[in-house]
């Protein structure tokens, strides 16, 4: 009981530690590929990978971020206009339905005006406005504190990932030494399988996200949708979060398309449905044929459970957590605990 309470109180530290391990596995995968192609000391390969990653990130930031920031800002500015246009379409559809049911002149245009009038009457007075401003300032201060805490947590994850990437074998041996001696060889094999599954997942996610961003850019360009770069990059980045991410990525391009013509918003929705089906049934199976297979229902359940337990970071890391847990359950619970028990029951 005391151990459970301790782990529950340290759950945020544990999820940040796991995030550092995932990043460390990404670095170790790059280092392993480099050493496979050209034998060299591990420290040299790690240094080359870090320098290459810094150059790639710096170049991508200089080339992509400025236009992406500008387009994303325009996208956010257009969202209210898109919401108003959607509101007008909804009002028109409701009025047409009401006209078909109750007659053409029955309360035409009256209900929405009354709704806006009630909204205007509900505006706050001076005292309420001052109280709202004070609460807003307190919220800004709290946001600044959360940003500072988030920066510290990010530095912790990066530092942990670098330390593990420098000496992965030493940290693995420390973890294995905490287990009974008779199980250490088996544990080393299980940890190796977890590492292979994580490496395969990361490579597959990068390839599938790039394909999704490319397909989104081509499709939006053919449809004549504005802010193609911003929407394509959002589609690629949000593809990392299964189920939830693709749904969120459709909101922004549909909002932009709705300002031009309603049919374009429907076309964008159809485009993203096609892209996600291609990603789910063609791209992902092709690039992740060595990955641990996860059922969609298990993936959705893992997202819900890890989000409740660990918060937003748990949603982002739900899939790698599910991959590791599936390997552990298959090897430890099924192979090491349940299968020997079954053999004993079946023995004469």
UniProtKB/TrEMBL annotation:
Keyword set includes Chaperone: no
Biological process, per Gene Ontology: transmembrane transport
Descriptive protein name: Pheromone autoinducer 2 transporter
UniProt keyword annotation of Hydrolase present: no
Family membership: Belongs to the autoinducer-2 exporter (AI-2E) (TC 2.A.86) family.
Coiled-coil zones: none
Species of provenance: Prochlorococcus marinus (strain MIT 9313)
Any Gene Ontology CC annotation: membrane
């Amino acid at each position: 009981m005391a151990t459970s309470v301790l782990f529950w109180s340290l759950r945020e530290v544990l999820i940040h530690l796991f995030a550092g391990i995932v990043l460390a596995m990404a670095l170790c995968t790059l280092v392993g590929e480099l050493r496979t192609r050209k034998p060299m000391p591990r420290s040299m390969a790690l240094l080359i990978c870090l320098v290459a990653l810094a150059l790639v990130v710096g170049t991508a930031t200089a080339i992509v971020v400025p236009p992406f920031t500008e387009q994303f800002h325009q996208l956010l500015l257009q969202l209210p206009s898109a919401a108003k246009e959607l509101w007008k379409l909804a009002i028109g559809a409701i009025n047409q339905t009401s006209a078909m049911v109750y007659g053409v002149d029955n309360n035409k245009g009256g209900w929405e005006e009354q709704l806006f009038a009630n909204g205007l009457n509900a505006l706050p007075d001076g005292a309420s406005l001052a109280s709202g401003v004070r609460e807003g300032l307190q919220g800004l201060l709290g946001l600044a504190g959360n940003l500072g805490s988030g920066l510290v947590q990010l530095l912790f994850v990066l530092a942990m990932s670098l330390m593990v990437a420098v000496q992965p074998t030493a940290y693995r041996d420390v973890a294995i030494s905490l287990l009974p001696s008779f199980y250490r060889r088996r544990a080393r094999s299980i940890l190796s399988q977890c590492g292979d599954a994580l490496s395969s997942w990361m490579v597959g996610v990068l390839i599938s996200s790039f394909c999704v961003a490319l397909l989104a850019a081509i499709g939006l360009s053919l449809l004549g949708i504005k802010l193609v770069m911003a929407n394509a990059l959002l589609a690629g980045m949000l593809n990392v979060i299964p189920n939830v991410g693709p749904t969120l990525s459709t909101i922004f391009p549909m909002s932009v398309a709705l300002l031009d013509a309603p049919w374009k918003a429907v076309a964008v929705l159809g485009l993203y449905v096609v892209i996600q089906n291609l990603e789910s049934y063609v791209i992902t199976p092709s690039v992740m044929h060595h990955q641990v297979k996860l059922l969609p229902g298990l993936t959705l359940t893992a997202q819900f459970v890890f989000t409740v337990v660990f918060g937003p970071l748990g949603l982002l890391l739900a899939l790698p957590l599910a991959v590791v847990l599936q390997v552990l359950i298959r090897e430890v619970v099924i192979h090491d605990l349940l299968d020997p028990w079954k053999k004993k029951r079946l023995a004469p």
